[in-house]
Structures are given as C-alpha cells and as structure tokens.
Amino acid sequence: MTISGSLRRVGRGRKWLALLGFGAAVTVAAAVGALGVRNTQEEYADLAQPAWAPPSWLFGPVWTVLYGFIAVAGWLVWQRAGWGPALGAWVTQLVLNAIWTPLFFGAGRYGLAFADIILMWLAIGVTVALFRRVSRPATLLLLPYWAWVTFAGALNLAIWQLNR
C-alpha cells in the first residue's frame, strides 16, 4: 500500500466519524429536549386540540426521520465548506429545537414554546439559505424539517389558544 492510499483511507475514516458526530449532535439535542419531560403522550392526549392534530404515536417516527435528515444535511455541508456561518446556523436551529420540548411539555408554557418555534422556523430558514450556497442535497434534506416545523408551529399556536 502506498502512503497516499493510506492517507485516503484515513480521510475516508474521518469523514464517516464526522457523520457519526453529526448524528450524535442531533441525538444529544433530542435527548436534551426530553430531559425532565415525562408522559408527553398522556399530556398531549389531555390537551384540547384542533381536529387536524395528529395522533401522538406519529411524532416519534416523524422526528426520527427528520433528525436523520438534519444530521446528514449538516455533515454534507461540513464536507464541502467546513465550519462556518452555515453550520453556525445549523447549530442555532438545533439548540432552539432542543429548547422547545421542555417549554411545551415540561413547563406547559405554550406561548413561550410558540415564540421558540417561531425563532426555530426563522433559524431553519437562515440555515436553508446558507446551505443552498454550499450543497443542494443538504438544502433538500432540510425542507421536510422546515415544513414539519411550520405545521408544528400552527399546532402549537392552536393548542396554546385552546388551552388558555
């Protein structure tokens, strides 16, 4: 084996470790969001909800897919541009994502959770705009997330209004 072949393997290994790192970051955000929050399905079921509210069992599978998309999107941008403003926006939206669950379910602060989701929606928009300059696939991976957060924002607002 040549030295250059060995270096390419190390580079590929680093690339895959980085993907694991992005997956870990998203997992940490999801876990932090769930810290101290119990019985969310029961709490959700007990809330007055609009007729179009999805069943509680749907959230887990949807978020699992979306978190996977978020991780891969960040990783794709990192590969092409490294750490910079685009990934700064990615981290910002992820932090806002982590904050939402404790506000909504842990604290029952539906209005504050709605304010957080508005900021998250805007941060996702900034992330999409910055990712668009770097990677089309990364941008496309974030669009379902942005759409779901749009829906979640409308649901949050409706629940807030119905449970005052």
Give the secondary structure arrangement, pairings included.
Blueprint: H1 3-34, H2 40-46, H3 59-81, H4 85-106, H5 110-132, H6 136-162
Helix pairs in contact: 1-3, 1-4, 3-6, 4-5, 5-6
Q: What do you see in this structure?
A:
Helix content is 82%, strand content 0%. It has 164 residues and is mainly α. It has a single domain (18-162), classed as Ferritin, CATH 1.20.1260. Helix 4 (85-106) runs antiparallel to helix 5 and helix 5 runs antiparallel to helix 6. The model is unreliable at 3-10 (pLDDT under 50).
CATH topology: Ferritin
- DSSP strand content: under 5%
Low-confidence regions: 3-10
Most strands sheet: none
Instruction: Specify the CATH homologous superfamily.
Output: TspO/MBR protein
Q: Give, in order, the helices and strands.
A: HHHHHH
Shape: elongated
Level-2 CATH architecture = Up-down Bundle
Query: For the residues shown, what is the average pLDDT?
Result: 89
Please give the count of helices: 6
Oligomer type:
single chain
Number of domains: 1
Question: What is the CATH C level class, in words?
Answer: Mainly Alpha
Please describe the structure with a list of short key phrases separated by commas or semicolons:
164 residues, disordered N terminus, mainly alpha, Ferritin, elongated
Brief description of this entry?
This protein is mostly helical. It has helices at 3-34, 40-46, 59-81, 85-106, 110-132, 136-162.
